[in-house]
Amino acid sequence: MDWDDLRVFLAVARAESLSGAGRSLKCDAATVGRRVGRLEEGLSTKLFLKSPQGYTLTDPGIRLLPHAEAMEQAMGLAEEEISGQAGKLTGQLRIGAPDGIANYLLPQICKRIAEENPELDLQIVALPRVFNLSKREADMAITVSRPTAGRLTVQKLADYQLHLAAHHSYLAAHPEIRSRADLKDHRIVGYISDMIFDKGLDYQSETGAERVALASNSVSVQMQMLRAGAGLGIVHDFALPFAPGVVTVLTEEVSLCRTFWLLRHADDRRSERLTRVAEMLGQGLRAEVARLEALAAQGLTISE
């Protein structure tokens, strides 16, 4: 069985379309279709069913998938060894993450990793959803809830704190906030409830707010609302140094702790390259969270 044909098979299985597979393989859809046909002819079986929704695996295709993934992993490790790149950070690596960590933490951390590893290309994909590592949407992903299912390697990265906050201009123009009960008289900024993709992002129940008047699925948009003096919202302490004028309120009554988890596909656990990047991400993230939370505690901001 030809590895190149299996590589095409994996791309179609993950993209669920010939065009999507072609983009990842950097070739046209017609070529992908011919390669799939050649593989199916060689195996004397159909591996995909075509429908208006795309290409889905048949039962034989489902049975072939784990073997193709195992071969992909073996080929990757073999390339590292043969090329002498084992332990060296080179090539491209994609990290999927919620936009809070992607905006306020990963840029600094990835900058340091890139400076130490000039031949490594890092990509940060910030999307408000859970990444599918089985479809290779990313090499690793960061979440705020520990998954309980799937073939994953899960690593704790760091704990972080969140508090209720508002811009001083909003606080000056609205009734004083002395207890959680006073929040009913204030406009709340937060997530769109039916677009919360991770239970760790559901803050409303913990604040006791009955209504979110201004909502977005993006942490960055919520922060901009707060900076504009639009209302009160839950913010990451590590984001406060980037938001001059936004200050915490009710810190004793409303205090949340969450955890960042790093996810990798279980088949990648033998990759020294990915393991080293994971270690660097963990060390960098813990240090950066501690640095920024210390600045926030002192009421300091980051100068441009």
Cα separation of the termini: 56 Å
In sequence order, what are the helices and strands, one letter per element?
A: HHHEEHEHHEEEHEHEHEEEH
Identify the overall geometry.
Answer: elongated
Q: Mean pLDDT, nearest integer? A: 88
Number of strands: 11
**Estimated radius of gyration:** 23 Å
Derived structural class = alpha/beta
Oligomer: single chain
Largest sheet: 9 strands, mixed
What are the low-pLDDT stretches, counting only 5+ consecutive residues below 50? none
Q: What is the CATH top level name of the largest domain?
A: Alpha Beta
CATH homologous superfamily of the largest domain?
Answer: Periplasmic binding protein-like II
CATH architectural grouping of the largest domain:
3-Layer(aba) Sandwich
The share of residues in extended strands comes to 15-25%
Number of domains: 3
Q: Helical proportion?
A: 40-55%
CATH fold call of the largest domain: D-Maltodextrin-Binding Protein, domain 2
Protein name: LysR family transcriptional regulator
Family: Belongs to the LysR transcriptional regulatory family.
Keywords: DNA-binding, Transcription, Transcription regulation
InterPro entries: LTTR, LysR_HTH_N, LysR_subst-bd, WH-like_DNA-bd_sf, WH_DNA-bd_sf
Q: Could you write a compact summary of the structure shown?
A:
Belongs to the LysR transcriptional regulatory family. With 304 residues, the chain is of the alpha/beta class. The chain is built from ten helices and eleven strands.
